[in-house]
């Protein structure tokens, strides 16, 4: 394996691993953890306490994942000269989807979360529902970006 091939392989593993971790974490939280907590605790206020305990300290972990995903993606794009215009279009669309997901993460972390933390008990169900909608959109964006990356990497016209 040549130097470029080894670097490409390493960056690909990092990029795929981080993307999988971000998407998988969101999917597990949305479709397993949150519904089970809501059913088990029954009360939105008690569920909120559990959500806060689980979320504590994760903002910067996710921000780190996003940074590594962006840097590894830029590195991979720089190593892929001679690709078709379609490949570049797919990779650009993927980057746009990840940028949109990152913007939603920013909103959740620095705008939505403080609003949720200071919500009155009567406001919690609406805030929780809003967060779920935003999280579903974010997971869809990350999943679609992952799919575009796979198509760009394996399509015969790349």
Task: Encode the helix/strand succession as letters.
Answer: HHHHH
Rg (C-alpha, Å): 18 Å
Quaternary structure state of the chains depicted: single chain
* Domain module tally: 1
Overall number of strands: 0
Task: Label the structural class.
Answer: mainly alpha
Strand content: under 5%
* Poorly predicted regions: none
What average pLDDT do the residues reach? 92
Shape: elongated
Largest sheet properties = none
Give a structural overview.
The chain has 158 residues and is an all-alpha fold. It has one domain. The chain is 87% helix and 0% strand. The protein has 5 helices and no strands. The protein has helices spanning 3-41, 44-55, 58-79, 85-117, 124-154. α1 (3-41) packs antiparallel against α2 (44-55), α1 runs antiparallel to α5 and α3 runs antiparallel to α4 (85-117). It is elongated. The protein starts with a helix and ends with a helix. The mean pLDDT is 92.
Search tags:
single chain; 158 residues; mainly alpha; 87% helix; elongated
Task: Provide a compact summary of the structure.
The protein is mainly α and 158 residues long. 87% of the residues lie in helices and 0% in strands. The chain has one domain (3-154).
Secondary structure blueprint with pairings:
Blueprint: H1 3-41, H2 44-55, H3 58-79, H4 85-117, H5 124-154
């Amino acid at each position: 394996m040549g130097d470029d091939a080894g670097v490409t392989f390493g960056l690909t593993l990092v990029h795929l691993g981080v993307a999988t971790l971000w998407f998988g974490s969101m999917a597990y939280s949305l479709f397993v953890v949150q519904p089970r907590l809501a059913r088990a605790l029954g009360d939105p206020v008690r569920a909120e306490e559990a959500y806060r305990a689980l979320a504590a300290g994760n903002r910067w972990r996710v921000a780190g994942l996003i940074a590594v995903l962006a840097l590894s993606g830029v590195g991979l794009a720089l190593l892929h000269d001679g690709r078709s215009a379609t490949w570049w279009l797919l990779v650009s669309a993927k980057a746009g989807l990840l940028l949109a997901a990152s913007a939603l993460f920013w909103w959740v972390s620095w705008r939505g979360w403080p609003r949720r933390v200071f919500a009155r008990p009567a406001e919690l169900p609406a805030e929780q529902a809003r967060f779920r909608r935003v999280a579903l959109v974010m997971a869809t964006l990350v999943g679609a970006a992952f799919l575009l990356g796979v198509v760009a990497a394996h399509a015969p016209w790349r």
